[in-house]
C-alpha cells in the first residue's frame, strides 16, 4: 500500500486540540494571546504579531499565497514579526501539524523559506535541494504536505544567482561548445542533468541566460509536479494550487512568475 490515504491530519489536529480542552480557536490564537512563553515568545511576540493575519486561519490557496507575499514584504522591509516561534505555540504542535503551504526551494543558505516569508514553525512544509531539482524520492517529500496534510498551496521557489543553476549552465554550455570546463572541487553531475531541460528551454530567451534558466526551471518544475501521481488529482479537483516565484538576494523580494 504505497498510495497515500492519510489526508485529514488537519482535522485530526483540530480534534485532538478539542479533546485536550484547548478548543480550535484557542489553539490557533495562541500566539495572539501568547502569555509567558520563553524565547522570543511572550508579550513581546504578541505585540509584534498584532495586526498580522495568522496563516493558520487561512483556508484557500489565494489567501495563503497573499499572506506569504505579505510576509515576504515585511522581510524585505526589515519588519519581520517572526510569528509562531514561542514556547506555547511549539507545545501546541506536539499532537499534530497543519502547514498551510508546501515550499520547494534551493538549499542556498541565503534563501530560507521560513524566514523570507516571515512564517514560523508548523506554518510551511519545506523541501530543499540544490537548484530545487527533484527525482522520484524528492517528489514524495514535496507532495507530502499537499497530499497528506491538506496544504492547499505549493510554492516552487527559485532564486537569483543560484549556484546550482549557474554551474549547470556552465557545464552544459561547455559540453555543447566542446570547451574545457574549469575544475571544481565538487561534482554535481546528477543536478546538472536534472537541469538540462531548463537549459534547453531557456535557449533563445532574451536577457541573462542564467536568469532565464532559473525561471525556466521553476516553470518546468511546476508543470512536472502538477502531473505527479500524488498531486495530479488534487490539482484537477482545484484542491491544490501550484505557484512559482523567484527570490531576489538584492531586494529580499519574491516575484511571482507564470
Ligand atoms: Zn540555488
Automatic annotation (TrEMBL):
InterPro entries for this protein: Carbonic_anhydrase, Carbonic_anhydrase_sf
A Gene Ontology molecular function term of the record: zinc ion binding
Residues annotated as binding Zn(2+): 106, 108, 159, 162
Gene3D superfamilies linked: Carbonic anhydrase (3.40.1050.10)
EC assignment: 4.2.1.1
Essential cofactor(s): Zn(2+)
Entries under SUPFAM superfamilies matching the protein: beta-carbonic anhydrase, cab
Annotated keywords: Lyase, Metal-binding, Zinc
Domain of life: Bacteria
Cofactor note: Binds 1 zinc ion per subunit.
Enzyme class, spelled out: lyase
PANTHER family: CARBONIC ANHYDRASE, CARBONIC ANHYDRASE 2
Record-stated family: Belongs to the beta-class carbonic anhydrase family.
Functional note: Catalyzes the reversible hydration of carbon dioxide to form bicarbonate.
Name the record gives this protein: Carbonic anhydrase
Amino acid at each position: 500500500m504505497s498510495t497515500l490515504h492519510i489526508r485529514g491530519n488537519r482535522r485530526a489536529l483540530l480534534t485532538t486540540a478539542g479533546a485536550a480542552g484547548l478548543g480550535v480557536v484557542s489553539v490557533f490564537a495562541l500566539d495572539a494571546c501568547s502569555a509567558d512563553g520563553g524565547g522570543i515568545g511572550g508579550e513581546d511576540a504578541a505585540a509584534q504579531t498584532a495586526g498580522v493575519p495568522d496563516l493558520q486561519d487561512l483556508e484557500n490557496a489565494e489567501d495563503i499565497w497573499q499572506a506569504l507575499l505579505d510576509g515576504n514584504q515585511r522581510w524585505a522591509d526589515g519588519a519581520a514579526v517572526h510569528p509562531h516561534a514561542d514556547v506555547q505555540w511549539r507545545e501546541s504542535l506536539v499532537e499534530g501539524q497543519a502547514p498551510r503551504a508546501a515550499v520547494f526551494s534551493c538549499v542556498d543558505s541565503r534563501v530560507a523559506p521560513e524566514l523570507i516569508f516571515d512564517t514560523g514553525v508548523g506554518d510551511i512544509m519545506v523541501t530543499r535541494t540544490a537548484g530545487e531539482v527533484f527525482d522520484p524520492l524528492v517528489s514524495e517529500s514535496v507532495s507530502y504536505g499537499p497530499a497528506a496534510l491538506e496544504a492547499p498551496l505549493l510554492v516552487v521557489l527559485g532564486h537569483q544567482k543560484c549556484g546550482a543553476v549557474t554551474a549547470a549552465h556552465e557545464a552544459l554550455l561547455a559540453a555543447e561548445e566542446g570547451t574545457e570546463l574549469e575544475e571544481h572541487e565538487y561534482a554535481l553531475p546528477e543536478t546538472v542533468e536534472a537541469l538540462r531541460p531548463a537549459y534547453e528551454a531557456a535557449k533563445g530567451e532574451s536577457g541573462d541566460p542564467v536568469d532565464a534558466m532559473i525561471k525556466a526551471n521553476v516553470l518546468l518544475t511546476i508543470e512536472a509536479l502538477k502531473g505527479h501521481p500524488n498531486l495530479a488529482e488534487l490539482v484537477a479537483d482545484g484542491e491544490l494550487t501550484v505557484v512559482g516565484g523567484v527570490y531576489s538576494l538584492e531586494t529580499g523580494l519574491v516575484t511571482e512568475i507564470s
